[in-house]
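Today's session is about reading a structure prediction critically. Students often jump straight to the picture, but the first step is always the sequence itself: look for stretches that repeat, for charged clusters, for runs of hydrophobic residues. Only then move on to the predicted structure, which in these notes is written as discrete structure tokens rather than atom positions. Here is the chain we will use throughout the hour.
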Amino acid sequence: MSQSLSFLTALSLLLGDVGFAAEAKSPKPLRVFLNHVTLDADKVVSSLEVFCGSVRLRGVVESKAEVKCGSLVVEGAVNGLVRATCAQVDVRGGVGERGIEVRFGDVNIEGTVRGPVIVTGGNVRVGREARVTGPVIIRGGTFRGDASRVEHGVRVEHRFRVGEAEDALIGWLVGLILLALGLVAFGWCVVVFELAVVAFYALLAFLFRGALERRRELFPTENLGLDLLAGLMVCAAGALVSLPLCCTCVGLPLLVLGFVVAYWFGLVTLAYLVGNYIWRNLFKQPAGFFGIVVTGLLTIQLSRLLPVVGGMLGILYWLAAVGISARWLFESWRARRSPPRVSPTPPRAF
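Below is the predicted structure for this chain, in token form.
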């Protein structure tokens, strides 16, 4: 009985090992879409498909490798055909007997290709250490490098054959469509982000409306030059104070938090000032509190998106916002410490 049990146990372990080995020896295909992937040297895939991406292949591809609108660097081995459309192929390892077919792309060979290399609408470069056992055929391109490394010669044709550019044209059209969709999606993301920022600062204005109105009483006339100077001085002082605060666990985060809160409140105040100026001088009609704040916020956020001066305006907005908050805190502290003004009482008539 014990011998039968041991036999069954050994048989099950053997079958398990065989099943595991069969599962380990069955590689899966690799598909890359809009991404950059590096396949390690110990990885083996059955096939490779790349669309609008780039792959650095250090492992092994058992069958074909196809690239459309991207790039492929072969540092390992491709046992099947390497086909590329609107892509660049660099061979530093080895390619099998089916060779390389590229349409509207360049090929750089520094390794071994055991088959033909056919390139339409692109250039081929063969290094000194390369070895190509098949012919190199180039249509509508140029050859550079050492022709003696090509065993069956190099043939350069300056004409395209009818129908060869169909896949390339489809690849270009699909790539342009994806690029346009990506730009539209990026634009919508920017719009949604800016609207979210405006909504956040409008909420801050709603929460601190009383503080904004009290600040307007402290500063009947605004001086942005003093605000910029105050913001510059506060940032310089913060940089000096941050050095000893780095030794503590709480000081530096509190300093950063203080700057962030000062910037938020100062930017809301700056938006109110900008919106008030726009409504009084450009529209020449009164507006409500939130209309003024939203107008100022939209103006500030849109001006930051300008190509050249947007970054400089962002720095000026930061300094002005921090300076506005610093001056408001200083004037509030001074108003609390100063004794209240007593209006003179008129003399009593007898």
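Discussion point for the tutorial: The first strand starts at residue 30 and ends at 33.
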